[in-house]
# Entry
Amino acid sequence: MFKRIREIKEKEQEELVRKISELLALERELERKLEELLREYDRKSQSVNTLNEIFKLKAITRKIEETVDYLEELNVKKEELKEKYLELKGEIKSIEILEERKKREKIKKEIAVSLQELGFMHLVKKIIPVFFMFFSFLFSESATQKALKDSINLKEDYKVLLKLIEEKLKKLEEERKKLEALQKTPLTEEEKKKLEKLIKSVEKAPADEIAPAIENLPPKLAAEILLRIKERKAGQILANMNPQKASEIMKYILERNPSFNAQVD
# Structure
């Protein structure tokens, strides 16, 4: 607030200085003109012989009087402006004093707050060790309880995981035995006839059209068909099958031809 008022007053002061400067310049000009009129009056007053010269002298006298009056008016106005300038200067000084006082009060408040904070910190320093010991105890107890719970949970998780691994190994062993049995079992005559008939049809049919028919066959028969056609065509057919069905058929194919997968890729 004080800053804004001071800025306004300073602008008024600048305007007054400008006006006073203009008056001083005008005053100097009038004084110069007055000197010229006085010199002219002195020169003409020495030889006044005619009525015309008397009138001219009176005219010069009138101009001198007018100039003097104007100078007096300017002087009065100039003094008024100077007085106003001094008043403004005093007001600005007062505002500056108030601003300085406000700054000092602010500094005092900041110092007081800092002292209060220092006193509070001193108190906190005394209390902190007690709180630290209390919360450390709580935290330690909580950590111990958590560690015990984690240990119990870990044991339970380990048991579940171990059970899952055992079940998975058991299933894998069963699958391995099935594959071994299938590998040893030869195709029947009926399966061989169906196989020869289908191979010819499969070779001619587009992969995306024949794939649904192949995946509906028994996995072992489907594998025998795919092993007897071109490997590229077999790969295309497998790619168009249901992934689960294709996986079952691949088990039989790999038992008969372990390098089949690499050749298809």
